[in-house]
Design goal:
The protein is globular, with a radius of gyration of 19 Å. With about 190 residues, it is an alpha/beta fold. The longest helix is centred in the first third of the chain and has 14 residues. A 5-stranded mixed β-sheet has the order 2-1-3-4-5, with helices on both faces. It is about 40% helix and about 15% strand. This is carbonic anhydrase. Its cofactor is Zn(2+).
Length: about 190
């Protein structure tokens, strides 16, 4: 059986046995937080457990690297929706050690694209159309700096309520150990950390 058939078969049993009942909650985060983090598979269950989060406690936004590259992109929009419409009142940016975005070479990504059937003409059109494809596909050199950059974009966003705490952390993808880089409460209260 292929993945989708396995998923659908399992889902039929899951619903029939009413296993969903243990996860019932509403759309508002009980702990009133929104988390921006990486899509790394090691964090799927580890991150919520390491933060003592249960289903319904937080809005979790995942992308490659857990980074915000554009102040008016999809990730920041999701943060603002979580704050204004879903009751979140603080933000956590959580990067992790051994991230696949560390040192990501856009030239290598483009090579893999062409090896998988994307035509050179398509790549060239994008490269010459004003879209900065290479920048869009670039990772980061240091997770610490990446987290702090994303935190800065959120903290300085003109549409974020001024007293919103924005924290920056790094999690170890094996142990779940958290390292606090910057505490948003200190910034909101005028203290430096």
């Amino acid at each position: 059986m292929r993945n989708i058939e396995n998923i659908l078969s399992f889902n039929d049993r899951f619903v029939e046995n009413r296993e969903y009942e243990q996860y019932l909650t509403d759309r508002f985060p009980d702990k009133k937080m929104v988390i921006v983090t990486c899509m790394d598979t090691r964090l799927t269950e580890l991150l919520p457990k390491a933060l003592n989060l249960r289903n319904g406690d937080a809005k979790i936004i995942k992308n490659a690297g857990g980074i915000i590259t554009q102040p008016f992109g999809n990730i920041m929009r999701s943060v603002l929706i979580a704050v204004y419409e879903l009751g979140a009142d603080e933000v956590l940016v959580i990067g992790h050690h051994e991230c696949g975005m560390t040192g990501l070479d856009p030239e290598n990504v483009i090579l893999h694209m062409t090896e998988n059937g994307i035509k050179d003409e398509t790549i060239n059109t994008l490269l010459h159309s004003g879209m900065d494809l290479k920048r869009w596909l670039t990772g980061f050199d240091d997770v610490h700096d990446s987290v702090l950059k994303s935190v800065s974009i959120i903290r300085n966003h003109p549409l974020l309520p001024p007293k919103t705490p924005v924290h920056g952390l790094i999690i170890h993808p094996g142990t779940g150990k958290l390292d606090l880089l910057t505490k948003g409460y200190d910034i909101v209260e005028g203290k430096q950390n």
